[in-house]
Amino acid sequence: TQLLEQSPQFLSIQEGENLTVYCNSSSVFSSLQWYRQEPGEGPVLLVTVVTGGEVKKLKRLTFQFGDARKDSSLHITAAQPGDTGLYLCAGVNTGGFKTIFGAGTRLFVKA
Amino acid sequence: GAVVSQHPSWVICKSGTSVKIECRSLDFQATTMFWYRQFPKQSLMLMATSNEGSKATYEQGVEKDKFLINHASLTLSTLTVTSAHPEDSSFYICSARDLNRGNTEAFFGQGTRLTVV
């Protein structure tokens, strides 16, 4: 069974601080996505990383896929209250048919 | 991004009744749809994977006779919770992918909050 371990599970920081969320697995994924979910809504796709070592930037968010395609990180620079939400990493198995989610990181940014 | 519409957004039903949740891909053909269940403050747990025109594949521990999934067209999948009980109360979310285009990204519906009383 492929598992994704996501850490930390909860993070409360002040506006302007930086943070990093990690997603680790012992399995190789064909791709990995990061989602953000607001309460009572479905997850919204932020980014997809496919190539080992790939780095993608989305404004203040930087996503990295590990060289071996087993882990990923999300770094937020100068966090804002609007960044508050549940961040989920999701790995697509090597067959490409199943998406496995990490436990999620609940981020709260205080003004 | 692609749009996936889920209906209803919330539903309250009496214990013992059945509830149907629809998941539609509005601007693409969803060869594969996934159904997830999410408890408060927890992540998404995959319940089943459905491919258009074939039987759904259920994850271990998910009762296929209780959670009936139908994926009759490339734009619609339904999840029916049969003989619902209070412990079935949860947030149910569908996602859809177009594997024929090689896309691995999944796009999610807005979720359905089911409350069984």
Summarize the structure.
The complex is a heterodimer of chains A (111) and B (117). Chain A has 111 residues and is mainly β. In chain A, strand 7 (61-65) and strand 8 (71-76) form a beta hairpin.
Describe what this molecule looks like in 3D:
Chain A is built from no helices and 11 strands. Chain A is mostly beta strands. Chain A starts with a strand and ends with a strand. The model of chain A has no long low-confidence stretch (mean pLDDT 92). Chain B is globular, with a radius of gyration of 13 Å. The termini of chain B are far apart. Helix content of chain B is 0%, strand content 51%. Chains A and B meet through strand 4, strand 5, strand 9 and strand 10 of A and strand 4, strand 5, strand 9 and strand 10 of B.
Give the key terms:
heterodimer, A: 111 residues, mainly beta, 6-stranded mixed beta sheet, 5-stranded antiparallel beta sheet, 0% helix, globular, B: 117 residues, 7-stranded mixed beta sheet, 4-stranded antiparallel beta sheet
Radius of gyration of chain B: 13 Å
Task: Output the helix-strand order of chain B.
Answer: EEEEEEEEEEE
Shape estimate of chain A: globular
Measured distance between first and last alpha carbons of chain B: 36 Å
The structural class of chain B is mainly beta
Question: Strand content of the residues of chain A, in percent?
Answer: over 45%
Provide the low-confidence segments of chain B as ranges: none
Structural class of chain A: mainly beta
> If interface size is counted as residues with C-beta under 8 Å from the partner's C-beta, which chains form the largest one?
A-B, 26 and 27 residues
Give average pLDDT of chain B, whole number.
90
Helix content of chain A: under 10%
- End-to-end separation of chain A in angstroms reads 40 Å
Main beta-sheet strand count, sense and barrel state of chain A: 6 strands, mixed
Helix count, DSSP H or I runs of 4 or more residues of chain A = 0
Secondary-structure element sequence of chain A? EEEEEEEEEEE
Major sheet characteristics of chain B: 7 strands, mixed
Number of strands of chain A: 11
Outline the low-pLDDT stretches of chain A: none
Radius of gyration of chain A: 13 Å
